[in-house]
Design goal:
Elements lengths: L1 E4 L5 H16 L6 E5 L5 E4 L5 H4 L2 H7 L3 E3 L7 E3 L3 E9 L9 H19 L5 E4 L3 E4 L2 E10 L3 E9 L5 H6 L26 H11 L3 E2 L6 H12 L2 H4 L3
Parallel strand pairs: 1-2, 1-11, 3-4
Antiparallel strand pairs: 2-6, 3-5, 6-10, 7-8, 8-9, 9-10
Helix pairs in contact: 1-7, 4-6
Length: about 240
């Protein structure tokens, strides 16, 4: 597995990179990849099937000039902002292995990620809650989602490290779907920061996944093209 860190890109370009690298793997042009990026600005990202008006405080986003985007995977809506760490795993799908179906892949990947964070915080209670949440005690610090193709899957998520959590309350509605363990808690009572450096968490994930840091870069011209033609368009971002 190769580990890549993207250079500073726009919000649309970062979202496009996930889909493009998945497509390259599916086409046989790349192999297992662990990708990292850090938001340089604040923006909202809805899951593929989310309805923007139901999940996002659109008026508050307009006041703050915070753009709204849609990703290619499912799951809930998130606020991306400086102080967060985004990772993307592109893994092969095996008919008999741990990525054979959605549930098996969730369990396999989340346990590996939980172990990586536990290695950094050995005395903390780090657990997988719901299907794809990582929690410190009963507070969520990471959400994740999955997209599957025939031969490869994309599993990606955001870890809250040193974020302005008040923005989540300001920019998002209460989610239309909640895991049972949330117990209808408001955003401020449900999420927390890990308060760890970006580099430490990135390196822990690289070690856990036994990835080799690669000097290669994502195909940036193709990423920029997909960002222009899809992820920057109102037709895509506000399709639901």
């Amino acid at each position: 597995m190769h580990s890549l860190q993207l250079p500073p890109l726009s919000a649309a370009e970062n979202l496009a990179a996930d889909e493009l690298i998945l497509d390259h793997c599916e086409a046989g042009l790349a192999g297992e990849t662990l990708l990292f990026w850090e938001p340089c600005e604040t923006f909202v990202v809805v899951g593929y099937a989310n309805q923007v008006a139901k999940e996002v405080n659109v008026a508050a986003c307009a006041v703050r000039d915070v753009p709204i985007f849609r990703r290619c995977s499912g799951g809930g809506t998130v606020v991306q902002m400086p102080g967060g760490l985004n990772y993307s795993l592109i893994l092969p799908i095996s008919e008999t292995g741990p990525t054979r179906n959605i549930s098996a892949a969730n369990q396999f990947i989340m346990e590996r990620n939980r172990q990586a964070i536990s290695n950094l915080l050995p005395h903390a209670q780090i657990s997988v809650r719901g299907h794809t949440d990582l929690c410190l005690g009963n507070l969520k610090f990471a959400g994740n989602s999955q997209r599957r193709r025939k031969n490869f899957l994309l599993f990606h998520g955001t870890l809250l490290l040193n974020c302005d959590l008040a923005l989540i309350t300001e920019l998002l509605q209460m989610p239309s779907m909640q895991p049972d363990y949330r117990e209808d808690r408001a955003h401020a009572e449900f999420v927390t920061n890990l308060k760890l450096p970006f580099e430490a968490v990135r390196d822990a994930l690289i070690k856990e996944w036994r990835a080799q840091v690669s000097p290669d870069h994502a195909p940036l011209e193709d990423v920029k093209k997909l960002a222009r033609e899809k992820y920057s368009t109102r037709e895509w971002n506000f399709k639901f």
